[in-house]
Amino acid sequence: MRASKALGLSLLVLFVGSTSLFAADARKSLSTTSAQPSLLSEFRIGFSAQDPWGPEGEGGSANLTGEILLAKPFTASDLFTSYFIPRPHFGGSLNFDGRTSFAYTGLTWTIDVTPDLFVEGSVGGAFHNGKDKVSDPLSDRQALGCSPLFRESGSVGVRLSANWSVMATIEHLSNAGACSDNRGLTNVGARVGYSF
After folding, report:
1. How many CB atoms lie within 10 A of CB 94?
2. pTM, to two decimals
3. Alpha carbon distance 48, 83 (integer Å)
4. CB count, 10 Å around CB of 101?
5. What is the DSSP letter of 131?
6. What is the maximum alpha-carbon separation in the chain?
7. Fewest CB atoms within 10 A around its CB: which of 27, 85, 131, 148?
8. What is the sign, positive or negative, of the torsion defined by CA atoms of 142, 145, 149, 153?
9. CB-based burial of residue 73 (10 Å sphere; 0-12 exposed, 13-18 middle, 19+ buried)?
C-alpha cells in the first residue's frame, strides 16, 4: 500500500470518527459525573506511513495501528501534578506489505494545551518481526539489530467531544546502540481515539 493511500485512509478514519461517531456521542449527557472508575482509559485506531524517509518506506508502505491506554494508577489533587502521572499503554502496528510489524508497551504522558488541544509523549519497548542483522535473508525488512527495541512517540491531538479525539503521531523504534545494527524505524500517521 502506498503512503498516499495510507494518508487517504487516515483522513477517511478521521472524517468518519469526527462525524458519525461524534453525533452518537453528542446524545450522551455531559452532566453525568458519577461514572464508575474503569481500568481502561482510551482506545485508539489509525493508519501510519511506514518509515517514509527510510528503506522500508520505498515505494510507499502503510500500517494499521491500534493502542489501548489504561487509567492512571493514581490521581493527583492538582492539575499540574497530574501531568507527571503517566497512563500505561500497549498496542501494535501491522504492516500491509509484509514489512516490519511490531507490538509495544510503555507509558504515556498527556498535557492539555487548551481544553480541546493536547500534546503527548510516550516511552517504552517494542518487539518486532524485522531483521536482526543486515545479512538476514528477509530483504524486504529493515535490519533493526535486535528485539526488543526502545520505542518513543509524540502526538498532537484535538478533542472533538468528551469521548472522541483525533491526533497526528510520529513514532521511532531503535535499539539505541545496544546491538551491532541500529538503523531504526520511524512511522508517521493519524489516529482516532475513544475515551471511556
Report:
1. 12
2. 0.78
3. 27
4. 18
5. B
6. 60
7. 27
8. negative
9. exposed
